[in-house]
Amino acid sequence: MSKKLSKSPNFNPYWIYGTIILILLSLSFFGEGTIQASNKTNTSDFEKFLLNGDIDKVLIQNEKIAKIFLKREALERNEHRIASKKNLLGQINESGPHYSFEFGDLKLFQEKLEKARSRNLDFQYEFVTVENKFFDIILSFLPIIVIIGVWIFIMRRMSGNAGGGAGGQIFNIGKSKAKLFDEKKDIKITFKDVAGLEGAKEEVQEIVDFLKNPKKYTILGGKIPKGALLVGQPGTGKTLLAKAVAGEAKVPFFSLSGSDFVEMFVGVGASRVRDLFKQAKDKSPSIIFIDEIDAIGRARGKNNFTGSNDERENTLNQLLTEMDGFGTNTNVIVLAATNRADVLDKALMRAGRFDRQIYVDLPDLRERKEIFQVHLKPLKKTKTLDIDFLAKQTPGFSGADIANVCNEAALIAARKNRKNVGKQDFLDAVDRIVGGLEKKNKIISQEEKKTIAFHEAGHALVSWLLEFAAPLVKVTIVPRGRSLGAAWYLPEERMIVRTEQMLDEMCATLGGRAAEKIIFNKISTGALSDLEKVTQQAKAMVTVYGLNDEIGNITYYDSSGQSDYNFSKPYSEETAQTIDKEISKIVEKQFTRACKIIKTHKEKLDKLATKLLEKEVIFKDDLVKILGKRPFIEKNNTEIPPKKNN
What pTM, to 2 d.p., does this model score? Predict the structure, then answer.
């Protein structure tokens, strides 16, 4: 049974601020010599006292206040009973001042006094100046006080809620910014909510078993893993998988980003790391999830020309110590996610810190179907919608991309005032996401339109006649995004790529420029993206995959990411010239091959371009009617794909 501990009331610093303000206000009203009180009077009574000869002395203070001292005989009269206050011994107060009042113009007041003295009235008057020296000292320090106040205000704002509501203390800036998800209230995601990622889920399942039943492993001498690193492309579900681990294990889950450790003050990052692990140990067993860990986990000692990375390196050093140093707690597991594992420090990646590296790959066909089933649940879709068909439309799509497709399809259906989201809405959504917004109102001259039609027809013709080129199922000359036309393919999902497959794809990519060359005997700038693509493919064949006879079985690819090609190349100048020649040779050979195919089937190219000019968009059925069936066994991928050649 939990006991409630009595807590002392929190100290409120505003009491101090209020007290200081009251003291300053008091000092501004009361100066030296003004402590003794006097009775207030007015000008008419003062003139009456003056004519009666009751006044002994008038003290003009700071040229605006008159202090009146009465004679002894006047104090004994009942008229001045209030001014002549007696002490405990019955003695009359003769010291004064007995009255005071504030006059207006000093010159007029002085004239009244001189006129009274001219009547032989016996009294004196003099001028005095009373200074509030202590208040003047306070005013001299006012700029410093203001600066300190502004600094306190900024520090309080920067600390925010870092201390978990700890009274807004100044030094909360060193507290961790991790958000705690309580296992009983906040975490409701389990592995059932994570579609696909079967391989990654199997990897992290053991971590869940460790947290649920640690004795099952420790009794055999096993140790719970210190950490697991989730590596994958953006949008593949790394963060979602980490939440599912916490939901399955039923333990506290601390979530934050790598950038949350970074601050402008020295030592704050390391302090936040210490505080984070302290909180996690207090609630152990628990999970710490650091998203985008490359913000603090980059390799040390690289590009440190100005010393500006010292603070980040100190934060990383503290993280390394907390994960596997003296006094570490084995009941805290660290999960981290990044899509740039190649830049992380080797000390962070070693066994004992991140014991496991879990690769979260892009989903395959079956996993994409499962992801579609999750994101289609909230949509009002047609009953005949084929999820298998949608999964085939999206090779290379991540989970986030599929969620975007479903949302975009719903928006398109709503824009067209439909009651349900149908197949065509999803096809339009794929086109919209991959190719960009359709621009039917873009002004294009007839000559340009004809050039675009033959360019896209060239892509279609060459890819249709090549065995290893991706099946083409849609060609359009409607401007979309930054392209004036597009040829859409459904690429085969391959694990490895052979030389002939890469060469056929390069040849199909150059089919557009080859068509322009053969038909118009001219070339244009419309093939920019095609040339960029084939140049990169040729360069990869020569320098990365070792698919060139001249260079041989050598690769200049560095998977560790430690090489910096901006300052030095891993090959000699002579080799660089050979590489340039081989890249050019590969590209030109495929261009010549594409031109030969275009010349052989020029009539079919004309029919295809004419059809494009007429309909603007043609599909696989139109290609079959004009070009006939492909001259080889076609793979069973015949739907509209998310890849295109401009």
Answer: 0.63
